Predict the 3D structure of the following.
Amino acid sequence: MKTDLRYAVSTLKPLGRLLVNTDNISTWEHDTKTLPFSCRRLRRKYRMFAKKYLEPIALEVDGDIEHFDPLPVLRAAGREGLLSEAMFRPVGSGSLSAMLFSGGLTFPIALKGEELMSACGGLGLLILDHELGIAPIMLAGDLFQFFKWLGKIAYANLHGEPCPVAFAITEPSAGSDVEETEGALKARLMTYAEPVEGGYRLNGRKVFISNGAVSKYVTLFAAMKGEGIESWTCFLLDKEMKGFSVGRHERKMGQRASDASELILEDVFVPGSRVIGKLRGGWALNRNVLVYSRVGVAAMSLGIARSALEKTVDFCRTHSLGGKRLIEYQDVQLSIADMMIDVSAARGMVWQAARSTKPYQAATAGAKVFASDTAYRVSNLAMEIMGDYGYVHEYGVEKALRDARLTQIYEGTNQVNRLAVIEWQFDSELAQTVY
Ligand SMILES: Cc1cc2nc3c(=O)[nH]c(=O)nc-3n(C[C@H](O)[C@H](O)[C@H](O)COP(=O)(O)OP(=O)(O)OC[C@H]3O[C@@H](n4cnc5c(N)ncnc54)[C@H](O)[C@@H]3O)c2cc1C
């Protein structure tokens, strides 16, 4: 007697067969097929880019970061249009139809985040951090600045002159404090702007800035001299500015292909035209940036989780124990099923949050927490299943675990993101909205 699922489906009448899916394709293909045509094309494009440019060098770069030159990767990403999607064609490479049919700007970023990070956490961050860097310019909503700066940046990236933008809020004594409402009131800031003729003079330090060393521009937040975070203002700084230098680079546990660096400001003159958004409007702008960008981090975490899952399945198919392939053991199958369920659940949350035309705080912060915890749990399980081999660099799952750990920290630790979920809920209760 035939017992398999596909045979069972084939016995149905054609009308019944319309109601069940018999396609013998991967989960990735299934999920891709649910997308509007323009988004399917984007998802395939990102996957192909990741397979061609990132996957082949991922382990080597992670193992020998001292000799890694990020420029060729950034140049390739720029030429393929991955660093200029904020501007639609013909100025940039953004797909208007993908944005319109998926519901919002963040969905293409989520697709890109998953695909690039599934090839390499560090190289993925090297490319994706740019989305965070330009987010203040996008959200400030000033059309003049939008075209002036993003037009120039998109053009340079498309024409082989990598022009990534970093994002700098963190200071030596202010990490969570600049990401969460209550902490902000007590934040001890040390980066200040002083009004001078024609602009501002900036002094201070930022730390742990992703791509701090490789970026051409930085959107950097500073308080007015003698005032607190209520005076925070966003400035667009050029690395070439006099008095602006890069200090210490952190020795990172994971996502190593992207540097985390200290930025030092010593009497840096910034023209008034480089104030992004409103003067003293930086705190509000930063809050909006985090709401918008956390869904990107959620998608990046999802990519790491998926890579750990894929590597585990490959391993279990090819490695045997006691004369039987690992994949044939039922307890291994149960663990892999758990990993698949976790990854699918994370994708559901990420896509749901990213598809919203206007992403909202509880959805993006919640997706960030769930997906990054999933990435950590799944890569840990991958190491457990693979035993000794999981601990070895060349199999890639110990790297996934190291890469995953950072997603629980940046863009606000998961504790701070949980507070963001609650904050939204309290506000909703005030508005008498049910969830
Ligand atoms: C590799 C790396 C890259 C980064 N990239 C960037 C970047 O590009 N740009 C940038 O600006 N920043 C960046 N950061 C900074 C990052 O966002 C901060 O490190 C992060 O927000 C945590 O801040 P902190 O390290 O000061 O921790 P702290 O704020 O000192 O937190 C310490 C602990 O206290 C907990 N905690 C804090 N407040 C609360 C609270 N109210 N309730 C409960 N628990 C709380 C935290 O969850 C954490 O466990 C990066 C950090 C790293 C490690």
